[in-house]
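Figure 2 data, in text form.
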Amino acid sequence: MRADLPVVPDRDTAREWLTSELQRPEYAERESLLSRLVNWVLDWLNGIQWPGTGMSGAQLGLLIAGVAAIVLLIAWLVAGPVQLGRARKGSAEVLDTDDARTAAQMRTAADAAAASGDWRTAAAERFRAVVRSLEERVIIEPRPGRTAQEAAGDAGERLPAQAAGLRSGADLFDGVEYGDRVATAADDAALRELDAAVAAARPVATGSGTGTGATGSGSSSGAAAAAAAASADENADKPGVSA
């Protein structure tokens, strides 16, 4: 037998190839559409008059190419929207609007996930704890719908020494929560360090406060805000460190 002749699948083999391809995880996210496509293709395969050994190599190649094209078309129709949806989710909020947990509670959840080896959950909860602690210390104002990148940017203005670490933490959060990044123990350790560094940092006042109002200068209000933030820092819970 010539080695360059194409391998011709019979009906059962073609069905097996198609079923195996469509069992990949990304297709499960489009189950209703996938079911219709699978049923249509399988019905089509059942109706094919499969050739015997007398068909020429060119005809066999065209048939195989046709089956492969259908499988690839289904893969593109299903996986394309899934990947697009993942990309759009990358800008989702870092804290759910109905999540009323404190930073300490989020750290506890992160520690529990880390203890079980669930690094994805540990990393996500650890960064959420950082953002919640920033809200609790009045370094950033609570705002529904804030994304990880927005939280990092807002906090970085008040904590410039931690701005780079906050951006890295936001990138990590987006990658493991809404992308394809696989979290590791090292990622969790890096977020622990970020949490501790942010907790120890003291915010700087924002704005020059040059305007003058009826009751005094704008700089007085800026100083008062800075003093309030500093006072909140003194009363903030420090993040725990797990072995």
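Caption note: The two ends are 64 Å apart (CA to CA).
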